Amino acid sequence: MRPTPHTGTLGRIAAVAVTATLTAACASGGGAEPAGDVPRAADTPDAESTAPGEPRDHATDLDVPWGVAPLPDGSILVSERDSGEVVRVAKDGTVTPVGTVEDVSPGGEGGLLGLAVDPAFPNEPYVYVYFTSETDNRVARLEYDPEEGLVGQETVLDGIPAAGNHNGGRIAFGPDGFLYVGTGDAGDPSLSQDRDSLGGKILRVTAEGEPAEGNPFDDPTYSYGHRNVQGLAWDEDGRLYATEFGQDRWDEVNLIEPGGNYGWPEVEGEGGGDGYVDPLVTWTTDEASPSGAAVAGGSLWVASLRGARLWEVPLTGDGGVGEPVAHFEGEYGRLRTVTVASEGDALWLSTSNRDGRGDPAEGDDRVMGVPLE
User: Fold this and answer.
1) What pLDDT sits at residue 190?
2) Residue 198: half-sphere exposure toward Cβ, Cα within 13 Å
3) What are residue 41's phi and psi, to 5 degrees?
4) pLDDT tens digit string along 270-293?
5) CA Rg, the chain, in Å?
6) For residues 367 and 82, what is the distance between their CA atoms, to the nearest angstrom?
7) pLDDT in tens, 209-238
8) CA-to-CA distance for 88 and 75, rounded, in angstroms?
9) What's this model's pTM, rounded to 2 decimal places?
10) For position 10, what pLDDT does the model report?
11) Handedness of CA 153, 158, 171, 27 (dihedral sign)
């Protein structure tokens, strides 16, 4: 089945709402079949995109890399899910351990997951991590010193539900300077609609873990009704896109509306009615299982685990999308994370073949550089 881009009324409303909210923030500091008449790519404006070049190994033999965060000097930090360790990969590919995150309790899909560098680095020399402990998922801040590595671990947000699966885990700083946190329902779908729970949400907090000014519910929640969010990315106009794992039928790319309800568990995919925000794109679960996301070269790039491919979703510049295109299908196995290199002319792409569900090849797991031509 072909992937389906959606550009209906709710999507257009979401684009207007999220752009307005992000602009204000910057100034102040299950499922149903997709409807047959949903606009296809042919009904959307032409979208310009940049073709990816051939991936090249940058670092190999990593222990289930999960988060990848570029540093200003062109090196990257990588979190390893099962070891709880963060490594630095230099521009020449040299891998150096820089620290182990305390209290990580790996198991199932949990462990050391997302990774983000303070946008004011190195003036604010902090690295943020999302990890599973024995009792919950949490976000911690550590100071990164190139000589000493990671020091001074401090929890800034805890109480995010944890389980053997559906832990979410992606964290990223938005263009408004706030930290966004993608969480999962921890195997309990009711949490996604429970606004008193941090599970099944996208959270928006300060660097100290406090609810960000302008949040829709005066708490950390930015949007809810999510099943398992593992990708967050913004376009040049500040629109936030998120990837989400479906259960049995439909994986999603969503355009995030502040306060929006994305339907889980009442609806999977498109067609929930006026109470829910419909996805921009749906894929069958064997085509995607979408994890990391990044925006570069006029497209949203989505790393897919079960689908074992890199999806390119052309962006039309008005909150709409063109027809998704698959790259590298089956060539590198499960793909976990994609992020933009610090120079902006390439992508970093990581595999996840040693996570217990893949078929590792020699050199797995790896981080690859993908030039944008």
Assistant:
1) 98
2) 24
3) -60, -35
4) 987 889 999 999 999 999 999 999
5) 19
6) 16
7) 999 999 999 999 999 999 999 999 999 999
8) 7
9) 0.88
10) 35
11) negative
Amino acid letter, residue 114: G
Q: DSSP states of 100-115 as a string?
A: E-TT---BTTBSEEEE
Which two tokens mark 217?
A: 């519910």
Separation CA 189–CA 252 (nearest Å): 17
Which SS3 state, helix, strand or coil, does residue 2 take? coil
Amino acid at 197: S
Cα 148 from Cα 356, distance rounded (Å): 33
Question: For residue range 166-224, what is the model confidence (pLDDT) as tens digits?
Answer: 999 999 999 999 999 999 999 999 999 999 999 999 999 999 999 999 999 999 999 99
Q: Which of 83, 78, 89, 142 is nearest to 114 (CA)?
A: 78
Distance between CA atoms of residues 304 and 350, nearest Å: 10
What does the alpha-carbon distance between residue 257 and residue 18 come to, in Å, rounded to a whole number? Answer: 5
Pairing mode of beta strands 290-296, 56-59: unpaired
- CB atoms under 10 Å from CB of 107, counted, come to 13
| Tokens linked to 303 | 């790393």
> Would you say residue 154 has pLDDT above 70?
yes
- CA neighbor of 127 nearest in space, from 149, 142, 148: 142
